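Filed under: proteins

Residues; backbone shape codes:
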Amino acid sequence: MILVRHGARRYAGGDASAGIESLHAFSFGRFYDPDNVRFGALLACNEERLAPGAGFDEHPHSHTEIVTWVVEGELTHRDSAGHATVVRAGDLQRLGSGAGVRHAERNDGAGPLVFVQMWLAPLEPGGEPVYEVVRALDDTTPYALPEAGAVLRVRRLAPGGRAAVPDAPFVYAHVVRGAVRLDGAELGPGDSARITGAEGAEGAEGTAAGPELVAGAAAAEVLLWEMTG
């Protein structure tokens, strides 16, 4: 089963006067839809756009795995565990909040900042906070997050390129840039797909028959979460 949700349906948040634009794919903050609270382990998928000098002041998190993919610009991260890092386009940042941590996120650069931030529920709550950055994550290296029973794959597709949907009980696809076709549906930037039942799919002769992502006339970039539950 594939459920496509177009980016235009996302909840608009942020504060334009402060240079913050936020688009939420799931219920978030004051936006609540009881039928759109989570998918698998995924609790949030937010596209954030920060003007130079804008940001989120220090605030708390707990019992949440926070994974950030920087699309454009530079993200300055600081937290109460003593980390101070600049995360750039193509880098992945993970903050496992454990029993509690505080952090701030800002655009201290000269240009615009765009990032996709995804929150996942851990299999076990609590513990010590964990922080890491993976520089220039490539297509061939999946990012495993066993704490949430999840794996993130970045797919950069050349025009007309193809990528198989992972074989997992729950798969979430978020289009960062470009356009792709998925099982007859057209997805553009900001669009997403929630896929269930892809694991174990076989064709009539026993060959793999799971859904595929197919790029359009331009290159595309897609974030794929595969989750066990």
